[in-house]
Amino acid sequence: MVVLAGSASLAIAMGVGRFAFTPILPMMLHDGVLDLSRAGELATANYVGYLVGAVAAMAVPRRWDHTFVIRLTLVTTILLTALMSASYAEAWVALRFLAGVTSAVGFVFTSGWCLAQLSGTGSSIGSAIFTGPGAGIAVSGLTASGMTVLGLSGSTAWLVFAAISAIISGIIWKTFGKSSKPSDAYSVGAPTRASGKVPKSEMPLFAIAYGLAGFGYIVTATYLPVIAKNSIPGSPLLTVFWPLLGLAAVVGSLLAARVKHGADVRLHLTGAYLVQAVGVALSVVWHDAFGLAISSILVGLPFTAISFFAMNEVRRIRSSHHSRYMGLLTAVFAIGQILGPPTVGAIMDRVADVDAGFDLALAVASIALVVGAALYVLMILLFPGERERQKSRTTGPSNLKGEAPRSSPM
């Protein structure tokens, strides 16, 4: 029940609070209530809010009841989503900003609380919590597809998503009762390396690499339905690419939990970045429906797996207070996302053709992911010893009281 509730909560926080805008965007463009420039402003507002929310989550006192915060984020997401249906365009920027704040807080608190309840079980089932964002994207995409076929407006779509979120929240509400374990019980007390020391320069390099992932995927995540509409206008498959990305993310998060634990996590991150880089680049050179489908799958597969691997790596680099460093990485990731829509806008202002503008923006995003992968390779060369540390933890007494299972993403 904890896993299902956590996954559903993340589906609302991320799939609706952050990414429902993506499949609704073509509907709003068709309604004539905004253009691509205005859409970029709304997307940026949401990503700035996500940054603010990540920082706010780091500052929340530990004594606060985390289940209360989770419930609050569920209610707030429902209200903000419903308010987007109002015809007050001046308020949309503020609403998307607040939705971003709520998404980040919901992500951090839901992840922390759920993993705290599952700590000490020795099971990898906790990784299934992170199927939530992908599932939310898939459901929102399929729902938007149906509404598009029915000719419904963007304002109606916002109300439908609010209603779906309310129903799901009602189902999982009781699970987020009074905490049976405090979220700070999910901690790691052992040294992070066999030597017990981690170079101070490793965390900054890791944060930069993780931030590049935020920039690398966000162009696709924000504009995929619009890119598809421009590439294959009139195709009956226009609305399938976004939910396909979400389904691939669900599969990717499940596969990530099954990778070999003895290998260096930075190798997994390098591979995930390169897969996503290829997916982003494919939509530049392969403009038909099949190419867009492959691109959606390759971008989606590492979508939540990257976060899963990265939070595991945080446990290695910073064994104590790693929840704060989780918030730090979320904030850096958000900065990368924030740069995405303005980059697209700046490129569009300098090119005559929309398709050429998207191709250039996607190429830049793909390069960013390759650079991020290269940084992980550099870290492996500069800071070796991960394999030895993993072996020592496997053979040593790792399941101390209160310690998280090795397979968990924090």
TrEMBL record:
Keywords: Membrane, Transmembrane, Transmembrane helix
Region (Disordered): 390-410
A family per Pfam: MFS_4
Keyword Methyltransferase: no
PANTHER family attached to this UniProt entry: PTHR23537, SUGAR TRANSPORTER
SUPFAM superfamilies cross-referenced by the UniProt entry: MFS general substrate transporter
Classification via InterPro entries: MFS_4 (IPR010645), MFS_trans_sf (IPR036259)
Membrane-spanning ranges: 44-61, 68-88, 94-116, 128-150, 156-173, 205-228, 240-257, 269-286, 292-311, 323-340, 360-383
Source lineage: Bacteria, Pseudomonadati, Pseudomonadota, Alphaproteobacteria, Hyphomicrobiales
Protein name in the entry: MFS family permease
Keyword Membrane: yes
